[in-house]
Amino acid sequence: MTSVIPGFDYRRVPVADGVSLHTAVGGSGPAIVLLHGFPETHLMWRHVAADLAADHTVICPDLRGYGASDKPAETDTDTYSKRTMAADVVALARALGHERFALAGHDRGALVAFRAGLDHPDAVTHLACLDVLPTLDMWDVMHGVTAAVGFHLYLMAQPPGLPEKLIAGSPDAFFGHFLDLWANDPEAIPAEVRAEYLAACRSAVPSIVADYRASAGVDVQHDEADRAAGRHLTMPVTVLQQDWGAALGYDAAAVWRAWAPDLHHATMTCGHFMAEEAPADIAKALRDLLAR
Q1: Nearest Cα to 24, choosing from 38, 48, 39, 16?
Q2: How many C-alpha atoms does 166 have within 13 Å on its Cβ side?
Q3: C-alpha distances in angstroms, 231 versus 118, 120, 254, 282?
Q4: Global pTM?
Q5: Largest separation between any pair of C-alpha atoms in the chain
Q6: Hey, how many other C-beta atoms are within 10 angstroms of the C-beta on 83?
Q7: Is 185 a catalytic residue?
Q8: Cβ distance 151 to 261 under 8 Å?
Q9: If 0-12 CB within 10 Å is exposed, 13-18 middle and 19+ buried, where does residue 79 land?
């Protein structure tokens, strides 16, 4: 990894046995942790992080299994469960001196953030989830040919072996497909940043697949248990999404409101990579959330 967020310090922070997270830290003030999505690294937050660092301590890790963070082998279903990855985030914040912090995640990072909000409500003060549905609901809304947009979810849900081999056979074509398809503004991801994303993914195929495989198994089980127990997100929550509800035939705000009574839900017109395509809008939305 050669690109950095200007003005941020970089360190490796141990968060679990044998797992350290490559983390950028900048600014001062109340803490906010920003979690990246697929197929990216912490660099996706570079614009928003620089904005928020004016009055917040901003913590941007590469998730377990991604970027320059450690990539433990998938020894069981918990290795890449969102519960495990959420515990990493809480341990990271505590190691940096923050018992309580705001949390924002995009895509895969939003699923980790969602789980952290449910599992660690005393630690997470505010929660933002960008362009994702909770895992249980994501599978529920995928029907018929419209589910083709999520073909990668089904591919990486398969048992170990085949998906890793297929993706490793042409990783740049596979990961680059999503960078091309999901961006309304391709120039929002410059060539050098795109190259960083592809290099990071190329070296992390087994752990990325393991992360997705968990979301077709243990993550669903955890969501089902919370839904059955009537658990909710107790902190203020902001959700920003593309208009997937209209495309796939569901009420996105209603889906989220079932989990988050204190919800602000908004539909964005930019592409999936909204922190890079509309960073000023995302920074403002996060500041508005933190004011609630």
Answers
A1: 48
A2: 11
A3: 7, 12, 16, 28
A4: 0.97
A5: 48
A6: 18
A7: no
A8: no
A9: buried
88 Cβ contact partners less than 8 Å away, ≥ 6 residues apart? 15, 16, 19, 21, 61, 63, 64
Q: Report residue 198 as tokens.
A: 């592809």
Contact in structure between 37 and 109 (CB atoms under 8 Å): yes
Is the bond preceding 39 in cis, omega lying within 30 degrees of 0?
yes
Name beta bridge partners: 112.
none
Residue type, 46: R
State the number of CA atoms in the 13 A half-sphere of 280 facing the CB: 0
Strands 124-130 and 237-241: parallel
Closest CA relative to residue 24, chosen from 64, 65, 57: 57
Handedness of CA 267, 134, 88, 292 (dihedral sign): positive
Among 51, 62, 70, 107, the active-site one is 107
Q: How far apart are CA 277 and CA 215, in angstroms?
A: 27
Positions of the chain with pLDDT lower than 70, given as ranges: 1-2
- DSSP assignment string, 214-248: HTTTHHHHHHHHHHHHT----S-EEEEE-SHHHHH
Two tokens, residue 215: 């979301």
255-266 exposure pattern, b = at least 16 Cβ within 10 A, e = fewer: bbbebbeebbbe
Residue pLDDT, tens place only, 18-65: 999 999 999 999 999 999 999 999 999 999 999 999 999 999 999 999
Task: Name the residue with tokens 């350290």.
Answer: 20
3-state SS class at 262:
coil
Q: Is 140 a catalytic residue?
A: no
